[in-house]
Amino acid sequence: MLRIFGRLSSLNTQKVMFCVYELGLEHELVAAGREFGVVDTPDYRALNPNGLVPTLVEDGFALWESNAIIRYLCAQHSRGDLWPEDARERALADSWMDWQQTQLQRALHPELHSLSSDPGRFTPERIEAARMRCETLMDMLDSRLGQVPFVSGARFGMADCAMAPPVHRWMNLAVERGTYRAVEDWFGRVSQRPAARKTLPAGARHGS
Ligand SMILES: N[C@@H](CCC(=O)N[C@@H](CS)C(=O)NCC(=O)O)C(=O)O
After folding, report:
1. 152-171: string of b/e by CB count within 10 Å (b at 16+)?
2. Nearest CA to ligand 1 atom 12
3. Which of 18, 50, 52 has the most ligand 1 atoms within 8 A of CB, as the residue to mutate?
4. Ligand 1 centre distance from Cα of residue 207 (Å)
5. Handedness of CA 198, 199, 203, 208 (dihedral sign)
6. Quick one: CA dihedral 46, 49, 52, 57, positive or negative?
7. 52 CB under 6 A from ligand 1?
C-alpha cells in the first residue's frame, strides 16, 4: 500500500497528491506536518531526516523530496505517459521540474507566501522584489506554454503535476500580476482535471 505523509495545505504535498490522483493509485494520506505533528518523531525522522512533508512509503521503500516522489511514481506507474520514455522529452520535463523547485519556489517563498499567513512580516520592498521576480519567471513559463500545450511537452505529464500547485498559489496572491495568456490557458485546462479538484483549495482554483 502506498502511503503519503503530508497535509493538503502544503504546496509540496499538493504536488505529490496531484500526481497520485492523476495516476489513480490506491493510497493512504497520513496527516503529518504543522498542526498534525508527526514530523519530529524518531520514527518519522528515520523515513525523512529533514522532518518535512511530503514523504512516500511504499512496501518499506521511503522517499522524500516532492519532485523525486513525483518522478518515482510516474516512472513506476506511467512509463511512456506521465513519465516520458524519450530521454530528451523527459529531460525537458525534468528541467521544468527543477526550475519549479529552484526558481519559482524561491520566488514565492517566504515573502509572497507570507501575505496570507503573516501579512506585515516583510517590508513592501521585499514583497515587491519577490513579485517582480515572479513576473520574470512567469514570462519564461508563458514562453514555454506558448510553444507546447503542457509544461511536460506535447502531453500532460509529471512536470504539470509539479507546476499546477505553485501556479495556483501565484494566481491567488493578493498582488498585481501581468497577463500571461499561455499560462492562464494551461492552468484553465489543468484545473478542470479531477486531480486538481481533489488537491487545490476549492474556490481558488481558477485564480483571482
Ligand atoms: N524540497 C522539499 C521541501 C519540503 C517542505 O519544505 N515542506 C514543507 C511544507 S510545503 C514542510 O514540511 N513544512 C513544515 C511542516 O509542514 O511541518 C520538497 O519538495 O519536498
Report:
1. bbeebbbbbbbbbbbbbbbb
2. 52
3. 52
4. 23
5. negative
6. negative
7. yes
8 Å CB contact between 96 and 105: no
* Rounded distance from Cα 51 to ligand 1 centre (Å): 8
| Closest approach atom of ligand 1 to CA 10 | 10
User: Would you give the DSSP letter of residue 83?
Assistant: B
- Domains of the chain, start order: 2-77 (3.40.30.10), 87-199 (1.20.1050.10)
Q: pTM of the predicted model, to two decimals? A: 0.96
For 160-205, the DSSP string reads: HHHHHHHHHHHHTSSS-----HHHHHHHHHHTTSHHHHHHSPTT-T
pLDDT digits (tens, 9 = 90+) for 154-200: 999 999 999 999 999 999 999 999 999 999 999 999 999 999 999 99
Which helix (H) or strand (E) covers residue 4, if one does?
Answer: strand 2-6
* 3-class DSSP state of 206: coil
74 in Cβ contact with 82 (< 8 Å): yes
80's CB contacts (< 8 A; 6+ apart) are none
- How far lies 5's CA from each of 8, 14, 41, 44, 63, in Å? 10, 11, 13, 9, 10
Report the alpha-carbon distance of residue 12 to residue 28 in Å, rounded.
Answer: 16
The predicted-structure confidence for 51-76, as pLDDT tens digits, reads as follows: 999 999 999 999 999 999 999 999 99
